[in-house]
From TrEMBL:
It comes from Streptomyces inusitatus. The keyword Nucleotide-binding applies. CDD domains: ABC_DR_subfamily_A (cd03230). GO terms for molecular function: ATP binding; ATP hydrolysis activity. This is ABC transporter ATP-binding protein. Keywords: ATP-binding, Nucleotide-binding, Transport.
Amino acid sequence: MSLAELPPALGAENLTKKYGRRGRTALSGVNLAVPSGRVIGLVGPNGAGKSTLLHLACGLTEPSAGSLTVLGSRPAASASHLARVGFVAQNTPVYGSLTVAEHLRLGASMNPSWDPDLAKRRIGEAGLNPARKAGQLSGGQRAQLALTVAAAKRPELLIFDEPAAALDPLARQGFLRNLLEFVRELGASAVLSSHLLGDIEQVCDYLIVLCDARVQVAGDTRDLLAEHARLVAPRAEFDRLPAGVEMISAEHRGPHGSAIVRARGLSAPPPYRVEPVSLEELVLGYMTRAAGAPLAGAGAGEGSR
Ligand SMILES: Nc1ncnc2c1ncn2[C@@H]1O[C@H](COP(=O)(O)OP(=O)(O)OP(=O)(O)O)[C@@H](O)[C@H]1O
């Protein structure tokens, strides 16, 4: 079956999650259709709902309303469906009193699809001593162990909640490289939440920006980058933007105006100048908009934003 024929890796319709009867709404009316075979970056500020979405995808918690599918089925619908999803929780937890080898034995006993050769090879490549207790490993080594255990069950979808947050830049680099190698070797999809936009830019080909319980934008990173630009012009020009241009966020200094905008094939005439944006700028633009920063289009006479 080709990738295009596979059900979405993640599909959500009006997905809503509230904690407790009067609790905070962690997700509100989320709609998603993320194709299989992608490395998906899930980004957003603290408390945006990222972990909640990942926990829902793993079946660790239930939606309050709406629906979510993972690889075409309800999350954790059966033991066989559980085996198709690998989850590495925040801080890559491992059992401190168990050795590396014992982690692999435990993984083998719990997962019918366990691939002992893959696990052994990856442990060797990561330079982990099988006899070492996990509690004695460094953060980077623990992350490699958790990644190996999740991947050796040969899942079709790997889910990571801020997997590399505690790692130094070199360890992070190694971790992300391994993650990509696993994804390629398994032919799997992966979703990872992270605050590290550089990491997301480096490894992800699909982006979901989640702010304040809602999806702000989602899509192929290449398409999103092609559809967004920085528009530069004298500030007064932002009072009325060219047709078809959606303002995402603006940053004006004195008489100079600059804004992240969305428009397909934007070619604004002078005095506008159109510049490409990085993924980081795009994400920050949506985060700024969701945080309620006023837009330049609302009136160029306002103060610097
Ligand atoms: N078990 C829970 N009980 C009550 N509220 C919760 C629970 N888990 C999360 N929340 C709330 O739901 C909202 C979303 O939290 P979530 O952990 O999903 O955000 P996040 O985007 O992963 O944040 P961070 O980047 O800080 O990890 C927050 O307001 C949080 O306080």
